[in-house]
Amino acid sequence: MVKVPLGLLAFAVMVQPLFAEAGLMQNWLARDDRRTRRIGRLRRGFQGVDGCDNDDGVLLCMKLPDLGDGVCNAADLQRILTTIKQPGFHGDKVHIIRSESPSGWLNVPALQPAKPLVGPPSSAWQTLHSSGVYMLEDFLSATEADAIVAQIQSRDPISSEVTQPALPTCGFRRSTTWVLFGSQRQQAPMPSDLLARMEAATNVPMKHYEPSQVVEYHPGDFFSDHYDSSVCDHIGSHQLPELHDVKLRESIDCGEGMRRQGTFIVYLTDESSSTGGATYFPKLDVRVQPKKGRALFFRPTRPDGSVDPWMLHSAETQLGGRKFLLQQWMMRGTGW
């Protein structure tokens, strides 16, 4: 099992034995096993929501037709489902989850003192917000993006599973993901110099890169508000006082090496406002519209490893068409 922590929601992904880079995959498994533990098999039919199980006051849900995988308390989830199941509903599920579960994401670490910003990776990047969101056009050519979309679909995707959420939280995602290990990231359909290009664009050495992902969003797919680095009860040797009232199912590794220092996204398809699918930072009111070849970069954690509260973000609901993106997470440690 490959387990990928995704901020407030931690989702595990089942990987079939289809990767040539078996050693890298096993290393990923071993490293991430220290961060998260699988929740047991979900029972069906709790609180009238098929696919959800009550686990110590929170519903853990898998493959809900409208919401996919996620966690939420029962009252909030019932309100969310009531709204999106209304006849003719064709809106943004992320907004509904946010409005119907106002305490559904953790605003941590809001009490941490402000840290100095590192700034954009280089002058080539456009600063979308001074808090640390940057955009770069034409990282990939249209031909390169089209080739990835066309060929990635011949591979088997991974599936997701809920594991180890922090409480309180309410969030869901529905999407399709392919994972690329090691040299797969420099073989067709990927450009042979993909990692070198990422390194040059971000100034983050490739030794810090996690396995790459290609993600597809069909109509109705989305990823609600989340951070790209796990909420945890400590950073190094000092405690986060704002987490005292947050329940964690077990201590999550917040060691320096396990934190994510960068998120690099490249959009592989063009999406208009009418088709949805934008990347949205609700605390900054910054919305990035997908454009083929366009890259987005931000830092999920601050220099001390703590989660940057401004980097809460979502993938808004895909209303039409199919969105593809290439995603690269960058750790502070090494090992991939």
Return residue spans where pLDDT drops below 50 for at least 5 consecutive residues: 1-22, 28-47
Can you tell me the CATH architecture?
Sandwich
Question: How many DSSP E strands?
Answer: 20
Distance linking N and C termini: 16 Å
Q: What is the number of domains?
A: 1
User: What is the chain-wise order of helices and strands?
Assistant: EEHEEEHHEEHEEEHEEEEEEEEEE
* CATH H-level superfamily title: q2cbj1_9rhob like domain
Q: Could you tell me the strand content as a percent range?
A: 25-35%
- Text of the CATH class: Mainly Beta
Give the helix tally.
Answer: 5
User: Rg to the nearest angstrom?
Assistant: 19 Å
* Largest sheet report: 8 strands, antiparallel
- Proportion in helices: 10-25%
Key descriptive features of the protein:
336 residues, alpha+beta, Jelly Rolls, 8-stranded antiparallel β-sheet, 7-stranded antiparallel β-sheet, 5 helices, 15% helix, globular
Describe the protein.
By secondary structure, the protein is of the alpha+beta class. Helices cover 15% and strands 28% of the residues. It has helices spanning 22-32, 74-84, 93-100, 142-152, 194-202, and strands at residues 2-6, 9-14, 52-55, 58-64, 68-72, 126-129, 133-136, 159-162, 171-174, 176-180, 212-217, 222-226, 234-235, 238-239, 260-267, 279-281, 286-288, 295-298, 313-315, 323-331. The protein has an eight-stranded antiparallel β-sheet with strand order 3-4-5-9-12-19-16-17, with helices on one face. The chain has a seven-stranded antiparallel β-sheet with strand order 6-7-18-15-20-11-10, with helices on one face. Strands 1-2-8 form a three-stranded antiparallel β-sheet. The protein is globular. 44% of the residues are buried.
